[in-house]
Amino acid sequence: MNNQNHLTDILIVDDEKDICALVSDVLQDEGYSTRSVNSSIDALQAINGKLPSLVLLDIWLVGSEIDGLGVLEIINKKHPNVPVIMFSGHGNIEIAVNAIKMGASDFIEKPFKEEILIQTIANTLKNFRLRKENQKLKAWQVPDDKLIGNSGCLNNIRANIEKYAKTNSRVFIQGPRSSGKSTIAKLFYMHSDRANAAIEYIDLTNIDPDILDEIFYGSVQDTNNVITSIVKSGVFERAMGGTLVLEEVGDLPIEFQSKLLRTITANKFTKPGSDKEIKLDCRIISTSSKDIKKLVEQEEFSNDLYHRLNIVNINVLGLKDRQEDVVDLIEYYLRIYSHIHGRRAKTVSSKMMANLKNHDWQGNVTELKNFAEWLVIMDTDTDQDYYTIDVAQADIIGNKIMNINLSSGNGNESIDIMSLPLREARECFEKYYLGAQATRFDWNISKTSEFVGMERSALHRKLKSLNLTGDKKDEGLADSIANTGQELESV
Description:
It is a single chain. This protein has helices at 17-29, 40-49, 68-78, 93-101, 114-139, 152-164, 181-190, 212-217, 235-238, 254-266, 292-297, 303-309, 324-340, 350-358, 364-378, 389-396, 422-440, 445-452, 456-465, 475-489; strands spanning 9-13, 33-37, 54-58, 84-88, 106-109, 171-174, 199-203, 219-221, 230-232, 243-247, 268-270, 277-279, 283-288, 312-315, 347-348, 386-387, 403-408, 411-416. The chain is flat. Helices cover 47% and strands 15% of the residues. The protein has a five-stranded parallel β-sheet with strand order 2-1-3-4-5, with helices on both faces. The protein is of the alpha/beta class. The relative contact order is 0.07. It starts with 8 loop residues before the first strand and ends with a helix. It folds into three domains: 3-139, Rossmann fold, CATH 3.40.50.2300; 152-317, P-loop containing nucleotide triphosphate hydrolases (Rossmann fold), CATH 3.40.50.300; 321-489, Helicase, Ruva Protein, domain 3 (Orthogonal Bundle), CATH 1.10.8.60.
C-alpha cells in the first residue's frame, strides 16, 4: 500500500454498482481515495463539485443520457488536466483505438485483473504528473513573446505590429526556419483586440491529408445512441473569436487549398456529418519558410489562396542577414539560461562576439539559443567574468564536440554529448577540447596552457586525469583529436 495515494481522488463511473464497489475496494486497498457514481449526469456533477485526480469511466453507461464517450469529450473540453481511463465489457480494438483518439489516457477491457488495473492507474498518474512538471518547467524556459534585437528588419516588424495588430487583417509571415515567425505571430495576437480570446496553432509540416478535414472543421459522429452524438471541434471552432496560426502553410496539400479558400471566401463552414453552417470568426495568421511566390509559379500553391492570406506581409530575415541582432540575442539568452541553470551570469569577450556575429547560423535563433545554453552548461571557470573564444570555436566548428566519434577496442562508437548527465558531458567535452588544443600545439604544454588560460601544472594534472598523453597509442582517438584541432586552427 502506498501511503501517498490517499491524496489521489479517483472517480469511478459505471452503471453496475457491484463493479463500482469491487474497483473501489481494490483501489482503497492501495491507499487511493475513491468516489463512485452510476450515470453520466451524476459523473459530471461529481466532477464539477470536486475535481478528481483521475476518472475510471465505463464506455456504455446503460440508461444514461450520455454514454461514456460523450462524458469523455466533456471532461477533455472542460477539464483537460484530468486523465480518463476507459473500460468496457464489450471491448475490441476499434473501440479502444477510438477512445484513445478521443483523448482517453488508456483503455482496460472488463473483466480485468487487479494488477493490470493498479499498474495502469499508476502509469497514467505518473505520466500526467510528469506532464504537469514539464509544463511548469516550460513556464521557466525562454520567453517567446518578444523580439530581441534592434536591426532594421526587427524595427520594421515592430512598426507593422503596432500599425496592424488591432485590425482583423490576415497576416502572412515569410522567413527562414527558426527566424522568429511564431514569435511575431504571437505578438500580433497579444497586441490585438482578440488577445483575451483563444489562440490556436497548427503545424502543417508533413501533415496527413486524410485528417485535414477533421483538424480544421471537426466532425459530428453518430454513436448509435438515440439521445446524443459525439461532436468534435476543429481548430476553426477552437479559435472562435481569437486567432488561428497556420504554421508552414506552404506545406498545405494542394488538394485541400481550394477548400480552405472557399471557407475563407464564404466566411463560414459546416462540420463533416452536419449541415449546420458555422460563421468563421477568427483572425488567420500564416507563416512559411518556403518561397510561396515560387510555389505559386510552380502551381504547387493556389494563387488565390495566397492573396487571401497575404493582406499584411511580414518578411523576417535570418541571422546571417541581421548580424547586429546576434549581440543582443546571445547576451539575452545567456542571462536567461544562467538563471534557469543556477549559474552566475557572464558575457562574452569582444573577440568571441566578433566570431559569433560572423558565424553562419543556419539554424537561426534556435541554433543560437542552443549554443547559449551549451556555453552556460559547460562553463567550468567560475573566476572569469566572460566566456572565452575557445569554447565558442570548439562548439561551432561542425558540432565536433557535440557529437564526436570515440574509438575503442571494439570499434567506433558515436556519443551524443547532450544526452549525457552534466558531469559526464563536461568530462567528455574537456577531454576532446583539451586533446584538440594539445594536438594543435604538438603537445607543447606551455603553449597549450597559455592558449586555453590554465596554469601549466593544472593543465598537466587535468590531461593526466583524462588519460590524455602525446603518445598517440590510440590511433583512432588521436585522429579524432587531430581533426578537431585542425578545424579549430582554421577559424
